[in-house]
Amino acid sequence: MKFATIQHPHRRTAVVAASEQEVAFLPERFTDIEDVLRAPEDERHAAVHEALASAARLPVTELSWLPPVTRPGKVMCVALNNSANPDRIISGPDTPAMFIKPSSSLVGHGQPIRLRTDDGRVHPEPELAVVIGKQGADIAHDDALSHVFGYTILNDITSPTMRGEDTFHYRAIHPASETADGVRFVESWVSYPARYKGADTFGPLGPWVVTTDEVPDPHALRITCRHDGELVTDDTTANLRFSVAEVIAFASRYLTLEPGDVIGMGTALRTSAKGGAVQNLDLNRLGGVVTVTIDRIGTLSNPVHRR
Length: 307
Hints:
Strand order of the largest sheet: 4-3-2-1-14-10-9-17-5-6
Radius of gyration: 20 Å
Largest sheet: 10 strands, mixed
CATH class of the largest domain: Alpha Beta
Number of domains: 2
Helix content: 10-25%
Number of strands: 19
CATH superfamily of the largest domain: Fumarylacetoacetase-like, C-terminal domain
Order of helices and strands: EEEHHEEEEEEEHEEHEEEEHEHEE
Distance between the termini: 38 Å
Structural class: alpha+beta
């Protein structure tokens, strides 16, 4: 099944795909996909049956899309999770490294990515995203996929300019028994992603959440990214460094995963046949429309509005 959240016309509502061209409205108590996730499974199936049995339909071309999960408790993103990364990593962990993207950064399919001149260089990061359906902590690897409700698309918009501005090169204080004052100083680099990853509209998400029964292998999905129709990135989730199950098991050791939480699995990096790199696609300079497509899930497209 494919679920989405839309604005129609003066209220938010959850819908289910009735065909490639039309959606059906879920009962009014389902205002978004969070409501779908919170419902018992039998109630969810009954709601879908009721929606598909109704004659009420709306063409996909007329939808005003919202992020399918409008206010997730957490949007977690896995850093450098592509097999193209390790040869570029000077030092780092051999486990998933994560950061949190605020839910206020999310926008739906077709909604603008709004950029200011002083945001500097800004580029897209096309990613497969996991939507958690069942709460859990310390989840075993073999049980991890049972906590997944479905999959969607995340464009993890990033500003290297703001990252540079919010990076500290400093001497960190570490304990040291061999010194008179019990401390030693270690040269460190620390960067904080609140602005450069979490600014408003820096999280296009959607348009669909596709349930796991329609995505039997999340590691066999082609991902493409286009700018104004021109192919920039052509990759596959087979190139993820850490699998969905590995990420869920590791993350849940530290953060309880809750229904509606979103996990961005890491940027698709492989370049197109024409060369170039997604990081070189400066949306603030070029404007235009950025589009991410993932097999079995759909296409997420957003225009760039420069202010």
